[in-house]
Write a structure and sequence with these properties.
Blueprint (H helix, E strand, L loop, with lengths): L2 E7 L3 H21 L2 E8 L16 E2 L3 H4 L6 E4 L7 H10 L3 E4 L2 H6 L1 H10 L4 E2 L10 H6 L7 E7 L2 H13 L3 H10 L8 H4 L2 H15 L18 H9 L2 E12 L2 E12 L11 E8 L3 E8 L3 H22 L1
Parallel strand pairs: 1-2, 1-4, 2-3, 4-5, 5-6
Antiparallel strand pairs: 7-8, 7-10, 8-9, 10-11
Helix pairs in contact: 1-12, 3-5, 7-8
Bound molecules: NADPH dihydro-nicotinamide-adenine-dinucleotide phosphate (NDP) and the ligand N[C@@H](CC=O)C(=O)O.
Pfam family, one: NAD_binding_3
Protein name: Homoserine dehydrogenase
Pathway: Amino-acid biosynthesis; L-threonine biosynthesis; L-threonine from L-aspartate: step 3/5; Amino-acid biosynthesis; L-methionine biosynthesis via de novo pathway; L-homoserine from L-aspartate: step 3/3
Length: 325
């Protein structure tokens, strides 16, 4: 059986979850692909750091050229985080004819056109499923089985860390700073959690979703964005007294080509469908002109749910390669 080799950039929360997903479900993944799949090289900062998962000798490297310039590697999975050097590495990999899978919404939202153009120019795929809402397969749904729709609206809870913080503050009266630390320990938060709590991460995700659903790219800096860092216990208590729950809501509307969009905390009545989305769970509501209203729900952050999305995109790229040979 042919072996398709994957080079992974990053072996933190998501890289580890991706590796574990392949180890856990190798037999069924390889059956779907019709070839064996091997994560043969992984880029890290420090090859000597103790890891949760032990890899065979020679897999870890601190030299990115071992992956992006390696002719044996067909697919690059980028799970480093940050806009640079991640964007530069993805562009080099695409220009070297490799398929790229990524969970890095900051890089994709900042360099959307450049990355997709490089993929098209080199006749390879760029697969960003894990960038939006962790394990929820929203991007592949929009671009494949829902592709016959014109979308009018996207609305949702797109950040697991802030939803976890708001849920724990509301339901258990916990302190903002303590819950943020807990979200970091559970592998939900960004390396710099400012992106989570200030709404920047949700704006990055909304930018990617708008580009794919509406065919219109808006830079995340141009999305009016307010996070949850100023939400106090008094705000939470007032919302509770009013029969509401505060949620960080990302929303976009497309009214006859006129777009409106924002990320901001909203007090939702407790009987609103998004009010019962708790902890690291996300929910995404989309409205298409043929299908009508749809709601997607699942874990929006964490190593294994996100690893599932990264591995799903690797599986599809590997299948494309296996079928083309
Ligand atoms: N955590 C989550 O739930 C989700 C995260 N994402 C996205 O996935 C990506 C990864 O997140 P996460 O796994 O949490 O991040 P981590 O900080 O846990 O892991 C980052 C990994 O990348 C390596 N790394 C970072 N920069 C470099 C560099 N310049 N050169 C070499 N290695 C580098 C680190 O190496 P070392 O280990 O040696 O330090 C580490 O292994 C981010 O883009 C994030 O936004 C998307 C969805 C959910
Ligand atoms: N930090 C992000 C991780 C997933 O995208 C979040 O909390 O949602």
């Amino acid at each position: 059986m042919k072996t398709i080799k994957v080079g992974m950039l990053g072996f933190g929360n998501v890289g580890t979850g991706t590796y574990q997903t392949l180890e856990m479900n190798r037999e069924l993944i390889e059956k779907h692909v019709g070839a064996s799949v091997e994560i043969s090289k992984i880029l890290v900062n420090d090859v000597t750091k103790p890891r949760q998962v032990v890899t065979p000798d020679g897999v870890l490297t601190d030299n990115v050229a071992d992956i992006i310039d390696n002719p044996e590697i067909d697919i690059v999975a980028e799970v480093l985080g940050g806009i640079e050097p991640a964007s530069e590495y993805m562009l080099k990999a695409l220009n070297n004819g490799k398929h790229v899978v990524t969970a890095n919404k900051a890089a994709v939202a900042a360099n959307y056109d450049k990355l997709f153009k490089a993929a098209a120019d080199n006749d390879v795929s760029l697969r960003p499923e894990a960038c939006v809402a962790g394990g929820i397969p929203i991007l592949n749904a929009i671009t494949t089985v829902l592709g016959a729709n014109k979308f009018d609206e996207i609305l949702g809870i797109l950040n697991g860390t802030t939803n976890y913080i708001l849920t724990q503050m509301t339901d258990n009266g916990l302190d903002y700073a303590d819950v943020l630390k807990d979200a970091q320990a559970k592998g939900f938060a960004e390396a710099d959690p400012t992106a989570d709590v200030e709404g920047i991460d949700a704006a990055n995700k909304l930018s990617i979703m708008m580009a794919l659903a509406f065919g219109h790219y808006v830079h995340p800096d141009d999305i009016p964005t307010e996070g949850i860092s100023k939400i106090t216990k008094a705000d939470i208590d007032k919302a509770t007294a009013d029969g509401c729950k505060i949620k960080l809501i990302a929303s976009a509307k497309n009214e006859d080509g006129k777009l409106s969009y924002s990320v901001k905390p909203v007090a939702l009545p407790t009987d609103h469908p998004l009010a019962s989305v708790s902890n690291e769970f996300n929910a995404v509501f989309v409205k298409g002109n043929a299908v009508g209203e749809l709601m997607f729900y699942g874990k929006g952050a964490g190593p294994l749910p996100t690893g599932s999305a990264v591995m799903g995109d690797i599986l599809m790229a590997a299948k494309e390669i296996a079928e083309s040979k």
